[in-house]
Amino acid sequence: MLALLAPVAMAILLAIALADSVGSAVLAVALALVASDATWFALTRRGAQRVAAAGAAILAAAGLVAVLATHWQGVLVLLGTLVLLALFGVAARYALGRTREAAARRAGAGVVPVGAASSAVLIMNLKSGGGKAERFELADQARRRGIRPIVLQPGDDLRELAESAIANGAQVVGMAGGDGSQALVATVAALHDVAHVCIPAGTRNHFALDLGLDRDDVLGALDAYTDGVERRIDLARVNDNVFVNNASLGAYAKVVQSDAYRDAKLDTWTEMLPDLLGPGADPIDLQFTGPDGRRWDDAPLVLVSNNPYQLTHIAGAGTRERLDSGALGIVAVRITSAHDVSRLVALELVGQAERFPGMMSWAVPDFEVRSGAPVEIGLDGEALVLQPPLRFTSLPGALRVRLPRGAGMAPAARAIALTSANLGALVRVAAGR
Question: Which residues, 6 or more positions from 307, have their beta carbon under 8 angstroms from its beta carbon?
C-alpha cells in the first residue's frame, strides 16, 4: 500500500507548488520517493533488511503526512482537482452514453435468441467457490428446469465427464465451477460444436465477468438453459492446452505454483518475492519477439490472454471489452527498480498504464515464448509446467456459448477512459453533432 504514496505525492506536489511553497514541495516529493523505494526494498529483502526498510517507509509516510498538515492550501487545491475529475467522469458517462449504446447494439448483432435446451447437462464441482453449488442447491434447481446435474466426484476426470455427456446426446453442456474447470468443459464443447453454459460457482469467475454475467447471481445464470441467447466467442490455446482467460508466465506463475498460494495469496507473495525479483534472484528465462520485431529476454512478467485486456482505465482493468476479436492480448512488463514500480502505479491511477516505459502490450493471432528450461505457467489460475517452445494461438469463434437474456457487458466495455477519442466525442456532443 505504501507504494501508492508516490503517485499521490505527485498530485500533492502540484497543490503545494500552486500554494507557493517550493521548499515544502521538494520535501514532499523526497519523502514520497523514500517511502516508495523503501517499500520495494522491503518486499525484495529478508530479515533485518526488510524490517529496516519497512521502518524507513513508515517514517517517510509519517513525514509526508506532517508536511501536508502544515500546508492546508495545498490540500484544498488537491481536493478541488479531485472534484473536477469526478465532475468530468459524470459528464463523460452522460455524454458518451450514446456511444456506449451503439457499442452494445454492435455486440448484440451476433447474438441469436434460443429456446429451452432439449437435452442439457450441468457438471458441478460442489467444493468450488467455497461450496457455492451446495449453498444454492444447484443440483435441485437444475432438475426443476429439466437439466440433468452431474456432480464431480473425487477422482473423476472432468473432461471425460463432458465427453460422456455429449456422447449420450447432450446438446448443451454447462459447468458450475472455477475458470480452470470452465476451460476444460469449453474445450470439449467446442470440439463437438455444442453450446456451453458458464455458471459462476467458482471463486473469482473472471470468465463469467467478461461474458457479462452477474457473478453473484448463480441461479440466474441457469436461465441460459431455458430462455437465453447464443453467441460465438474465441478460445485460445498454448501447445495442447485450451484456455478461456489467460496464461501467466514469469514471477506470477512461480507464485501460483506454490501449495500455499490458494489459501494465503498475500503472504505467499511476500515470502517468495525476494527470491523472484530480489538482488540474488535467478534471471527468469523467457524469450519472445516484441511488437517491434525486437527479441526480448528480460521481462519477469508476461501475460497472454484470450483477447486483449483493458489496460488504460482502472475501472476496466483486468477485464476484456470483447471475446470475439480473433486475437491474443500480449502484455510484457520489464521492472528493474523501485522507481519503475512507483511510476507504473502512478500511471495506473490516472488510467494511463500503457504509457509505462517498461510495459509492452499488443494484439496478435499467434505468439511464441522460448526458454532453455521447462516453463512454469498459470493457465486460468491452474499451475502447470510446459515444455518450450510455448506456442500460443487464438481460436476465433471456436465456442458457442449460451447466456441469459439479461446478460450485460464486461466492465471493460462499460468503462470510459480519459482519452483523446473520448474528449473528441464530448466536443462533438457539446456542439450538437
Answer: 234, 320, 322, 323, 324, 325, 327, 328, 329, 394
Q: What is the pTM of this model?
A: 0.70
Instruction: Provide the grid cell at 106.
Output: 454492435
Contact 394, 326 (CB under 8 A): yes
Q: Which residues pair with 331 in a beta bridge?
A: 303, 361
CA–CA distance, 255 with 377 (Å, rounded to integer): 10
> How far apart are the C-alpha atoms of 275 and 378, rounded to whole Å?
18
Query: Please, are residues 64 and 28 in contact by the beta-carbon 8 Å criterion?
Result: yes
Q: What tens digit of pLDDT does each residue of 7-39 get?
A: 454 445 444 543 556 666 667 767 777 776 776
pLDDT in tens, 134-180: 999 999 999 999 999 999 999 999 999 999 999 999 999 999 999 99
Helices (H), 44-157: 47-69, 72-95, 97-108, 132-135, 138-144
Q: How far apart, in whole angstroms, are the C-alpha atoms of residue 224 and residue 263?
A: 32
Contact status, residue 238 vs residue 386, Cβ threshold 8 Å:
yes
